[in-house]
Design goal:
The protein is α+β, with helices and mostly antiparallel strands. The protein has four domains: 108 residues, no CATH class; 176 residues, no CATH class; 82 residues, Immunoglobulins (Immunoglobulin-like); 153 residues, no CATH class. The protein contains ten helices and 37 strands. The N and C termini lie far apart (71 Å). The N terminus is likely disordered.
Length: 625
C-alpha cells in the first residue's frame, strides 16, 4: 500500500486489493473464534432442547460442590487447605488446630509450644481462592453416566473459576469447555455463572468483628479471671491456727467445670434471656455482631493449669501467730496467695439459621492476669531494612539423610522479617551472607524434600549443617471393611512438624517423609438426621455486686440455654485413627493402603455421639506396597 499526495489510494493497484482480502479474512476468523469462545455464556436458547437436562445437571453439580466447599469453610474456620501444623507442649497445650467432634479447626489465635503468640486469621481473598481451587477440582469429576447411556457424547475440559463471597450469597464464575454431541445436534459451552444463597460472607465478617473485639477488650480473659477468683483459692486471710491445704488436682477439676459452664453461658445478644431477670445480664455481651454468637468450651479439650507455690499437688499456707515469740498476738491467722497460669481453648460459633461459622482461639491467664492484648505486640514486628545488611558470612551445607549434599534455597527469619539468603551447592559448603540476629530462624527448602527450620544465631561467623528429609509421593487407596471405597472421606496425616489433608477421592496423592504420623480417616455419608431444638436451665454462682463481692459473697444466677434445631446432611459413618511410623524403605513402595472400619448409621443425636466415641478408639490397618 502506498500514499498519494493529498489522500490515501486503496484501489490504485492489486497490492491494495490483496490487503483488503487479508483484513476481511482475519475479521472472519476472529469472529468465528469469538463465537466459539463465548458461545457457552449465551442464554439457554443456544442449547438444543434435548440437551438442556445435561446443562442443568452440570449446573446442579457446580452448585452442590460450591455448597460443600462453603460448608467446609464455615466448619473449619475459613480454611479448606490448612496452614502448616504446629504441635503444642506441656507448657503451652495448644497445637495450631482444635479437634472439635472429629473436625480439625485451625486456631485464629494460639500460643505455640515454644511460647510464640500466633495469629492465623484467613482473609476473604484467601477463602475465595481456596473455594475456587476446591470447585475447580470437584467439577471436573461431575458425572454424566445417565446421558452417556442415552447416546450423548460429552467432552469436558479443564476448569478455571473465580469466586466472590458476599454477605448473603456466593457467586461462582466458571470457565470449563463442555462439548455435547448426539447424531446431528451439538452444543459447545464454556462459561457459566452460578449464584448460591449463603450467609458465609456475613458470618465471616461478624466472626472477624468478634475476634477483633476480643483482641481489644480481652473479655474472655476477664471472665476467666472472675471464674478463677470465684472457684479457686487465690488470696485471702482466715483466722485459724492450723495450716490451710488444698489439693491442686481437685482445684483444677473445679476450675475446668466452672470454665466450661460459664463459657457456654456467654451470649452475644439478649434474645435468649428475660430482661426482667437483671442477674442474667452478667452473661450478655455487647458484641459488634448482627448474628447470634455462642461460645463453647469442654473440660476434655487440651488445657494447662499451673499454680504456685505448691509441692506436687499440695497447696499449703502456714499460720502466723503460733510461732515462738508471737504469743503476744493472742490469735493465729493464715494469709494465702496463690498464682495461677491457666490456658484453655474457646470455640466461637456465629450462626444464622442452620449456617454456623466457627473458629477457636486460646484464652491465656498468666500470673492471675489476662495475657497482653492482641494490639500489644502479638503480631510479628517488622525490622526496617533488616535484609539490606547481610554482613555475617555463614558456611551452609544441606544434606539428605544419607549425608549426600543437596542444593537448597536458604532464607532467614528474625522478628517477623524474612530475608532471601541464597542457594547451597551439591558440591560442597557454600558461604552465604546473613543479616545479624540472635536466635533467628534459618529455613531450607529443596524440591522433593520437606522444609526444614531451626533456631540459628548469626551474630558471629559460624557453620550451619542442615539435614533434609526426603519426601516420597504415595498413591493412597482407601478401603472400608476391607473393600475398595471410592466415596467421600477426609484423610489427615499429622506429624510433629507438618500436616497434610486429603479430600478423597479427589485427592489421592500424599507426600510423606520417614517418621511418626497420626493417620486419621473420616468417612462421611449422606444423612437426614434431624436434631430438634432443646432448652435447659443452667445455674452458676457469681460474685455479689458492690462491697459484698469483695468479701467473696456469691449469689446463684440461672439462665436458659437454647440449642437450635439442626439438620445433619453428612454424618460420620466410618474411619479411625492410627499412629504409624513410616520407614524410608517403605516409602519407596509408592502405594499406601488404608483399611478403615464402618460405623452404624446414626438415627439420633445419641447415635452420632456414640459414633464419635467409637471413632476415637477405632484403629486403622495401614500397609505400604
Amino acid at each position: 500500500m502506498r500514499f498519494k499526495e493529498g489522500k490515501l489510494d486503496f484501489f490504485s493497484n492489486k497490492k491494495a486489493q490483496v490487503t483488503i482480502f487479508i483484513i476481511v479474512a482475519i475479521l472472519i476468523v476472529a469472529g468465528v473464534a469469538l463465537y466459539f469462545t463465548f458461545r457457552g455464556s449465551f442464554t439457554m436458547s443456544s442449547v438444543p432442547k434435548n440437551m438442556e437436562p445435561i446443562y442443568n445437571s452440570f449446573i446442579s453439580c457446580v452448585e452442590e460442590n460450591t455448597l460443600f466447599g462453603i460448608g467446609m469453610l464455615e466448619s473449619q474456620g475459613g480454611y479448606i487447605k490448612f496452614p502448616t501444623y504446629v504441635s503444642g507442649s506441656s507448657y503451652m497445650p495448644f497445637s495450631s488446630q482444635l479437634d472439635f467432634m472429629g473436625t480439625q479447626i485451625p486456631y485464629w489465635y494460639y500460643v505455640s509450644g515454644n511460647n510464640i503468640p500466633t495469629s492465623q486469621v484467613p482473609t476473604l481473598s484467601d477463602m475465595q481462592k481456596q473455594l475456587s481451587d476446591f470447585i475447580n477440582l470437584r467439577v471436573e469429576k461431575c458425572e454424566f453416566e445417565t446421558f452417556y447411556e442415552q447416546g450423548f457424547s460429552i467432552t469436558k475440559g479443564n476448569a478455571s473459576s473465580s469466586v466472590k463471597i458476599e454477605d448473603d450469597k456466593v457467586v461462582v464464575n466458571l470457565n470449563m469447555p463442555l462439548s455435547i454431541e448426539r447424531e446431528n445436534e451439538s452444543a459447545f459451552l464454556t462459561s457459566y455463572e452460578v449464584s448460591v444463597k449463603s450467609n458465609l460472607g456475613g458470618l465471616y465478617s461478624s466472626a472477624l468483628e468478634v475476634y477483633n473485639y476480643e483482641g481489644e477488650n480481652m473479655f474472655l480473659e476477664e471472665y476467666a479471671v472472675d471464674v478463677l477468683r470465684l472457684y479457686a483459692p487465690v488470696d485471702g486471710v482466715e483466722l485459724t491456727c492450723s495450716p490451710l491445704t488444698w489439693n491442686a488436682n481437685n482445684v483444677f477439676e473445679t476450675l475446668k467445670e466452672a470454665i466450661e459452664s460459664n463459657t457456654q453461658a456467654l451470649r452475644g445478644d439478649q434474645s435468649d434471656y428475660s430482661l426482667s431477670k437483671k442477674e442474667n445480664q452478667y452473661f450478655v455481651l455487647d458484641l459488634p455482631s448482627d448474628y447470634e454468637v455462642r461460645f463453647l468450651n469442654s473440660r476434655n479439650w487440651s488445657s494447662a493449669y499451673e499454680v504456685s507455690p505448691s509441692e506436687g499437688p499440695l497447696m499449703m499456707s502456714k499460720p502466723v501467730g503460733n510461732q515462738e515469740g508471737l504469743g503476744i498476738l493472742g490469735f493465729c491467722y493464715v494469709a494465702y496467695h496463690f498464682v495461677y497460669d491457666v490456658k484453655y481453648p474457646v470455640l466461637v460459633q456465629v450462626s444464622s439459621g442452620e449456617e454456623i461459622f466457627q473458629f477457636p482461639f486460646a484464652v491465656v491467664i498468666e500470673d492471675n492476669n489476662p495475657r497482653e492484648s492482641l494490639n500489644g505486640g502479638v503480631a510479628d514486628s517488622q525490622i526496617d531494612n533488616f535484609c539490606e545488611y547481610k554482613n555475617t558470612p555463614i558456611s551452609v551445607s544441606a544434606y539428605d539423610t544419607q549425608l549426600n549434599l543437596v542444593p537448597a534455597e536458604i532464607s532467614y527469619k528474625c522478628m517477623g522479617t524474612t530475608c532471601t539468603i541464597g542457594e547451597t551447592s551439591s558440591e560442597g559448603a557454600t558461604i552465604l551472607n546473613f543479616p545479624q540476629c540472635g536466635n533467628g530462624q534459618i529455613i531450607a527448602k529443596s524440591d522433593k524434600y520437606r522444609e526444614e527450620k531451626g533456631i540459628f544465631s548469626t551474630i558471629n561467623s559460624a557453620r550451619a549443617d542442615i539435614i533434609l528429609d526426603r519426601l516420597y509421593e504415595l498413591n493412597v487407596n482407601l478401603e472400608l471393611d476391607s473393600r475398595n471405597y471410592d466415596g467421600e472421606a477426609i484423610i489427615n496425616f499429622v506429624s510433629n512438624d507438618s500436616s497434610q489433608t486429603l479430600i478423597y477421592p479427589e485427592n489421592t496423592k500424599v507426600n510423606l517423609s520417614s517418621g511418626q504420623y497420626e493417620v486419621s480417616v473420616y468417612i462421611y455419608k449422606n444423612s437426614s438426621l434431624n436434631i430438634a431444638s432443646s432448652q435447659y436451665e443452667q445455674c452458676v454462682d457469681v460474685p455479689e455486686s458492690g462491697l459484698s463481692g469483695l468479701f467473696g459473697i456469691t449469689k446463684k444466677q440461672c439462665y436458659d440455654v437454647e440449642i437450635p434445631a439442626q439438620i445433619i446432611s453428612n454424618a460420620l459413618r466410618g474411619g479411625g485413627k492410627q499412629n504409624y511410623y513410616f520407614l524410608e524403605s517403605e516409602l519407596l513402595g509408592g502405594d499406601l493402603i488404608i483399611n478403615a472400619g464402618s460405623l452404624i448409621e446414626p438415627k439420633s443425636l445419641e447415635d452420632l455421639q456414640t459414633n464419635y466415641l467409637i471413632f476415637d478408639e477405632k484403629g486403622l490397618e495401614i500397609e505400604v506396597r
